[in-house]
């Protein structure tokens, strides 16, 4: 057989074989699975209590005008001596197989967080159906209560919770999103410390667990982002405020966009003006000064003035420089306040241990056994380069214009 004909024949056979082999070998029919949108982990009476927020497809796909007849999700719980044992028991009361590929968030109750969440991380990393990009949150009470809360604007509460985290992360930077793989990286880092944002039920009154609440324009209770849980390895050891979390973001260079509030003078505590930070970065460099480690923090940021209630004329170069100095002082205070709180807890949530380890591995060998004490003594020297790129449509503040006209 000629070589050309043989080549054509082999190509035809390969093509037919490929066509016959195309299929969804691992397909899952939607009417056979229970899609989990969020998971809650609690520790109750020496057992793991796992709660699931399962999507009800026929409810969220209802586009008729007859009003809401059924809740968009179902919340139920199972218990077990291990995480997987509790998950397996879901088949005792759920007619469909649990499907976690679309799970958005994991909410950890405070009791479970203080016991240790390494079993949770282990399960999510081993399972092929789970995602290591799931967001982790911690609650001050029972985590199941968070899943039961109905939220407006979003049909699926689990998706709404994740959107809250992303919105806070991208626009305010007080609380940064933490995913499963990031949690593991923090737990296994040189310092072993990491932070996780808190979600809690705010307000007093009847909790919004019924779809009847969606008919009201105001809820007595609602979900809010709150503090920051500080974890040593896999255990919750304490809390930091959202404001202190904002300082951590500046130190670690985690600011993407944010609104920074500043005062009109260095001695004032009244933050009446604000700057929209459009770009920011922080470079941390450990240096040894007279036998002590010092962290040099080079902070660079640029943005636009969105509120000016100071008697400063931003149209003049000296006015811009004055505002830039005030912004620098404000960021410095925020950063040092957060550093001192972390040092009081002896919790290196800033990753200074890793910086020194990479800079001087031999020095790290001597520091590692008592790193908590060494971290509490480390000094940070911040330097700033702030650039005001836009002052808005008014060069002077309205307050300044009014007082000028009255003179």
TrEMBL record:
Subcellular location: Membrane
Topological category with respect to the lipid bilayer: Lipid-anchor
Record Gene3D superfamilies: Nutrient germinant receptor protein C, domain 1, Nutrient germinant receptor protein C, domain 3
Record-linked Pfam families: Spore_GerAC (PF05504), Spore_GerAC_N (PF25198)
Domain spans labelled Spore germination protein N-terminal: 26-197
Protein keywords: Germination, Lipoprotein, Membrane, Palmitate, Signal
Annotated ranges, domain Spore germination GerAC-like C-terminal: 228-392
PANTHER family given in the database record: SPORE GERMINATION PROTEIN B3
NCBIfam families xrefs: spore_ger_x_C
Family of the protein in this entry: Belongs to the GerABKC lipoprotein family.
Official protein name in the record: Spore germination protein KC
């Amino acid at each position: 057989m000629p070589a050309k004909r043989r080549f054509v024949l082999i190509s035809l056979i390969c093509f037919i074989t490929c066509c016959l082999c195309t299929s969804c070998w691992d397909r899952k029919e939607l009417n056979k699975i229970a899609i989990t949108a969020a998971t809650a982990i609690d520790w109750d009476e020496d057992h793991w209590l796992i709660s699931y927020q399962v999507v009800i497809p026929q409810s969220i796909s209802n586009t008729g005008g007859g009003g809401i007849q059924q809740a968009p999700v179902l919340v139920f719980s199972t218990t077990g001596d291990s995480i997987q044992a509790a998950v397996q028991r879901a088949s005792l009361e759920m007619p469909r197989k649990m499907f976690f590929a679309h799970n958005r968030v994991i909410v950890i109750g405070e009791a479970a967080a203080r016991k240790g969440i390494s079993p949770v991380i282990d399960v999510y990393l081993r399972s092929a159906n789970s995602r290591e990009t799931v967001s982790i949150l911690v609650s001050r009470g029972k985590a199941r209560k968070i899943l039961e809360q109905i939220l407006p604007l979003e049909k699926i509460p689990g998706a709404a919770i994740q959107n809250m985290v992303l919105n806070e992360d991208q626009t305010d930077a007080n609380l940064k999103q933490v995913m499963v793989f990031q949690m593991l990286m923090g737990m296994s880092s040189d310092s072993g410390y990491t932070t996780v944002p808190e979600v809690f039920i705010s307000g007093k009154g009847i909790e919004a667990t019924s779809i009847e609440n969606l008919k009201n324009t105001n809820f007595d209770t609602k979900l809010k982002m709150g503090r920051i849980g500080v974890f040593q390895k896999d255990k919750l050891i304490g809390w930091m405020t959202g404001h202190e979390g904002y300082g951590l973001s500046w130190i670690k260079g985690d600011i993407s966009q944010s609104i920074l509030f500043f005062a009109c003078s260095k001695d004032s505590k009244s933050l009446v003006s604000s700057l929209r930070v459009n770009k920011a970065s922080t470079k941390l460099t450990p240096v040894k000064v007279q036998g002590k480690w010092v962290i040099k923090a080079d902070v660079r940021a640029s943005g636009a003035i969105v509120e000016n209630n100071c008697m400063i004329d931003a149209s003049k170069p000296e006015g811009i420089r004055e505002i830039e100095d005030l912004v620098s002082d404000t960021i410095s205070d925020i950063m040092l306040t957060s550093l001192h709180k972390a040092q009081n807890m002896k919790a290196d949530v800033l990753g200074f241990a890793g910086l020194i380890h990479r800079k001087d591995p031999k020095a790290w060998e001597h520091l590692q056994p008592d790193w908590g004490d060494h971290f509490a003594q480390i000094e940070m020297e911040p330097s700033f380069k702030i650039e005001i790129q836009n002052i808005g449509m008014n060069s002077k503040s309205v307050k300044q214009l009014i007082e000028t006209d009255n003179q």
